[in-house]
Every structure is written in C-alpha cells, then in structure tokens.
C-alpha cells in the first residue's frame, strides 16, 4: 500500500502530538521529513520518531524531499509564510489553529490553494473529538430537540512556550490560543450557520507580569438562526486542563467532558511522570489521563485529511472555516475594547488581532 508522505513543520508541543498521532494511528501516512527553526531540535525529534530527514530550512526541505502533505505546527505568526511556501511547491496543507494572524493572510492562503487545486485543512480537533462527536450525532437525531444554546470552555494555567505570551508572535492571548476552539465548535454544531454578532469580555488576571495579552475571556456569539454560543477560556485556571461542552435544547440537554471521564483516579506520595496537560504536581490525588491525544481528536482529524488527499475528497474543515473563526476573533477583541456587540461581517486592518483590544 502506497503511503501518503508527510512533512511536519515544527518541533514543539503540538508537533509532538501530531507526530505521535501519525505513528500510532494514521497508518496510511508516513512522516518523511521534519522542520525545526533549530537544526539540533529537528534532529532530536527526527531521532525520536524515526524520521529520515531533518531540516532547519523549509525551502530546502520542500526542494529535496518528495512529500504529499505539509503539516504546519509552527507558532501563529509563521503560518502564512509556511503555507505559501508549501503551496508554491504544490503540496496539500494542514494548518494548526489559529489559521493565520490576519484576514488578509487568511485570504491569500485560501486563494493560492484554490488556484493550484490544493487541499487546505484547518486542524480543529474538537470537530473530531469522539465524545463531542457523539453529542453532535445525538443532536442531529433530535435527542435534545431544537438547540437554543451551546457552551464550550477550555481552561488551564498557561501555555507551554514563551511565544504564546507575545502579541507579535501569537497575535493575541487566550482568545487566539483557545477561544478559537469554541468558535469553531459552535459553527460545527450549527452547520456553519451565519454569525450575527459577537460580544466579549477580556482581562489579564494572572499573567500581568509577562504579557499584555488576555488570559481570561468570556465570549457570546449570536447566530442568525437564534442559537447562542457561550465560550469561557482561561490561562488562569490551576489544576490541569479542563475542556467541556454543554448543549441545551427544547427537549433535553447534553454535557460532555474531554478529560475527567477519560482518566484514572490516582494517589501518589512521590509523584510520577505525567498526569494530564498542565496538571502540575502529580503528588497526592490526581486524574491520570489515558489516550489524551485520541480523546481530543488529533488522530481522527489527521486520518481524515490523509484520506482526503489519498482519495481526492473535500475536507470537512477547510481554510474557509479557519478564516471564519479568525473573523469572529477579530470581532471579539473589538467588542472587549468597546463593551458593545460587534456585528459581522467585520474587518479591521491590524497587524495582529489583539491590537483591537489594546487600541493600538
């Protein structure tokens, strides 16, 4: 069986999740090259995952190694450049969230892939998380009646890498990092219904000493069909990752949690290697995660995209979806500054979205 050849760009936390997912679950794909901004880091990751080629130059990778898919797991500000390079070499593309820093960049990425007939997937794993997908199927079958409100929350004590805290490299704070998941999931649950307005409150409550970006946000999205989405996102919540959804309908309700229902209750006097993402100390009582990446939907989204490339199918989550989420993020930052609803479509020419909140 001929395998789809993949190049992964990035050597950080999310790249590690993608690489582990390819190795364990995505059997129709083979990662044949890794790019890192630091050559030594790229070589370390290549050795860990048995990848034959390691590069610190994207152009060199694309010129020297035959690949079908470029999987972009780089810091936010590098998404556009990496996408354009991959498209120039006629490669299909996966882009981790958020899709881009600006709507202009997003539009250019979408346009070049359309022009070259390349598949462009926005890697939103919540659209593939098994537990959340089970809830969506229940909703589609009418289990809760007509949906009138959706809630999604994702909270932990802060990101893995320093670049997340810098507006120049991340584009914003927790809204860019985690709020994008909620906004994408709301659209997924409503069948991509048109967004009417966005209202948001944003503050920096914990990490004031290292960032001027938001670290705690509440966002309300109003869809034109009347459904309300409420997103709660935080970098100020201790105790490990918390990710959950609530679906309210005229005939029922459904709740789901990505983490606590997939863990083993553990007590340790000494502590141990790893309990869960952002969990901190493992001494005392902890919830030890099992198949964390699988439960979050990473292998499923990658299997889906590889299948789309292999069998010439249209991805379920596209660059246009990533662009739509980015527009909602723009509106959220504008709302947080003005204290008013922002109606869509919305556009502002800024270098990165948080400038709307900071009034720069």
Tags for this entry?
single chain, 12 helices, 35% helix, Rossmann fold, alpha/beta, Dihydrodipicolinate Reductase, domain 2
Structure characterization notes:
The structure is a single chain. This protein is of the alpha/beta class and about 350 residues long. It folds into two domains: about 5-125 and about 300-315, Rossmann fold, CATH 3.40.50; about 125-295 and about 325-360, Dihydrodipicolinate Reductase, domain 2 (2-Layer Sandwich). Helices cover about 35% and strands about 25% of the residues. Strands 12-11-7-10-9-8-15 form a seven-stranded mixed beta sheet. Strand 2, helix 2 and strand 3 form a beta-alpha-beta unit. Helix 5 (about 105-115) packs antiparallel against helix 11. It starts with a strand and ends with a helix. The model has no long low-confidence stretch (mean pLDDT about 95).
Q: What number is the mean pLDDT?
A: 95
- The strand count comes to 15
Tally the structural domains.
2
Query: Under the CATH scheme, which class of the largest domain?
Result: Alpha Beta
Amount of beta strand? 15-25%
CATH architecture of the largest domain: 2-Layer Sandwich
- Uncertain runs are none
Oligomer: single chain
Largest sheet: 7 strands, mixed
Report, as a whole number of angstroms, the end-to-end distance: 54 Å
CATH superfamily of the largest domain: Dihydrodipicolinate Reductase, domain 2
Q: Please state the overall shape, judged from the principal axes of the Cα atoms.
A: globular
Strand order of the largest sheet: 12-11-7-10-9-8-15
Cα-atom radius of gyration: 20 Å
* Helical residue percent band: 25-40%
Give the count of helical stretches.
12
Structural class label? alpha/beta
CATH topology descriptor of the largest domain: Dihydrodipicolinate Reductase, domain 2
Order of helices and strands: EHEHEHEHEHEHEHHEEEEEEEHHHEH
């Amino acid at each position: 069986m001929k395998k789809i050849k993949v190049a992964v760009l990035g050597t950080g936390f999310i790249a590690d999740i993608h690489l582990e997912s390819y190795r364990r679950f995505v059997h129709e794909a083979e990662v044949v090259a890794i790019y890192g901004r630091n050559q030594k880091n790229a070589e370390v990751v290549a050795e860990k995952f048995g990848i034959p080629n390691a590069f610190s130059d994207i152009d060199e990778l694309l010129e020297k190694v035959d690949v079908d898919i470029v999987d972009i797991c780089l810091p936010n500000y590098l998404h556009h450049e990496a996408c354009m390079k991959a498209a120039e070499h006629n490669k299909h593309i996966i882009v981790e969230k958020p899709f881009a820093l600006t709507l202009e960049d997003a539009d250019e990425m979408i346009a070049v892939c359309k022009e070259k007939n390349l598949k462009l997937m926005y890697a939103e794993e919540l659209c593939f998380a098994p537990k959340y997908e089970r809830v969506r199927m229940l909703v589609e079958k009418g289990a809760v009646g007509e949906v009138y409100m959706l809630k999604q929350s994702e909270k932990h004590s802060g990101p893995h890498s320093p670049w997340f805290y810098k507006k120049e490299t991340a584009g914003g704070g927790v809204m860019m990092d985690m709020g994008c998941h909620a906004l994408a999931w709301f659209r997924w649950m409503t069948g991509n219904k048109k967004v009417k307005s966005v209202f948001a409150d944003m503050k920096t409550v914990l990490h004031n000493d290292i960032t001027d970006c938001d670290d705690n946000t509440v966002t309300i999205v109003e869809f034109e069909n009347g459904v309300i989405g409420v997103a709660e996102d935080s970098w100020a919540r201790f105790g490990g990752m918390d990710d959950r959804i609530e679906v309210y309908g005229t005939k029922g309700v459904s709740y789901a949690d990505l983490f606590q229902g997939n863990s083993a209750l553990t007590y340790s006097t000494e502590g141990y290697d790893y309990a869960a993402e952002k969990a901190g100390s493992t001494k005392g009582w902890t919830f030890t995660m099992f198949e964390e990446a699988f439960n979050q939907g990473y292998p499923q989204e990658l299997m889906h995209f590889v299948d789309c490339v292999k069998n010439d199918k249209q991805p379920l989550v596209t660059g246009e979806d990533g662009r739509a989420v980015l527009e909602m993020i723009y509106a959220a930052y504008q709302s947080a500054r003005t204290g008013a609803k922002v109606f869509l479509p919305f556009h502002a020419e800024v270098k990165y979205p948080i400038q709307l909140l900071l009034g720069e």
